[in-house]
């Protein structure tokens, strides 16, 4: 039976089955390794498994119960049987610390939910709990294509971040597996569609928009406290947990997320959502970049038009970089205009934080009617530009010129100093500027 030691450590008994007589072992799980010894002092442990992503743990089940675990020893898989409840505890404590092998032992694959160039997402069922989840299957040939291991490191970083996240507005990671040809990240299954898909079919009321922005800000406040930058907030990465209920949405896809302490400040994200400071070489951007991205989402939900227009991803990216933005918010309430202006400030030092934004009067407004944006408040509804497939960039060897942004060591330049005195107009300047023949670009 198990003996508790700390939140992440415990001891349990297990046995190796032999033809003549089973052999009893003692297992100790601590912060960085598993020790398996014939004695309880673990001074000379026969089997050691380092808790890192180079290690794998295997499982056996019978009648919907865990019955054994397996580890590689001198290239041979050794099986250890134990009490089912102890094995469940071991399984739970290894979450996100090693890759599990033989995914088909634990999960049954059902229909495909989506696919991309490097991965597919399936609906899967856990054989032990009979609960449904989503499995993100990432091809190994894609992960290992680059010699610098950037894609592998990015995947590991995503896993390390997600195992620490626990917020109702952020998708939860459940398990990680490694197969012969793929890595598998098991996530909670969200029942609804992306906000991008939902928004194309429905007109949102201001009450719904307020629910969406409030829920996202709550998640960003949580990420800010934990010093995490998502770096790719967009409509496609907000998914409804319950069908038709925008108040249930969750943020997904932490493939580009980093800690604020990470010195690598690459240009990354999706054109049309990227904060101005991310385009500036050596400017140390912060979690405020996510506020800007959410501001662009807020803008689109309000007026059904993108903040930065273009017929191709390259055009959108160029307008995004130059801060040449659309302006169709003239009929919004003062509270709405004020919040979105603060979220879209070009200077991140003047941009509102997530926790500050949650206290904004916009969330205290009372709206009349529930028919849609145009009926509740006379926002200007305009023709949307042709739909352009979002182009995700990371350090852009695949899409645009390589732009890497490193953190500044020592004293930090001001945003205006980094830009130079003749940069692009701020949101404030653009909002107050008279139009001169163009309804979507500041001349």
Question: Which structural traits does this protein have?
Answer:
disordered C terminus, Phosphorylase Kinase, domain 1, disordered N terminus, 20 strands, Protein kinase domain-containing protein, 5-stranded antiparallel β-sheet, 24% strand, 3 domains, Prot_kinase_dom, PH-domain like, alpha+beta
Instruction: Report the CATH architecture of the largest domain.
Output: Orthogonal Bundle
What value does the average pLDDT take?
A: 82
Low-pLDDT stretches: 1-6, 368-443
Tell me the distance between the termini.
73 Å
Residues in β-strands, percent: 15-25%
Helix count equals: 12
User: Which sheet architecture does the biggest sheet show?
Assistant: 5 strands, antiparallel
Based on Cα principal axes, name the global outline. elongated
CATH class of the largest domain: Mainly Alpha
General description of the model:
This protein folds into three domains: 83 residues, Roll (PH-domain like); 84 residues, 2-Layer Sandwich (Phosphorylase Kinase, domain 1); 238 residues, Transferase(Phosphotransferase) domain 1 (Transferase(Phosphotransferase), domain 1), CATH 1.10.510.10. Helices cover 25% and strands 24% of the residues.
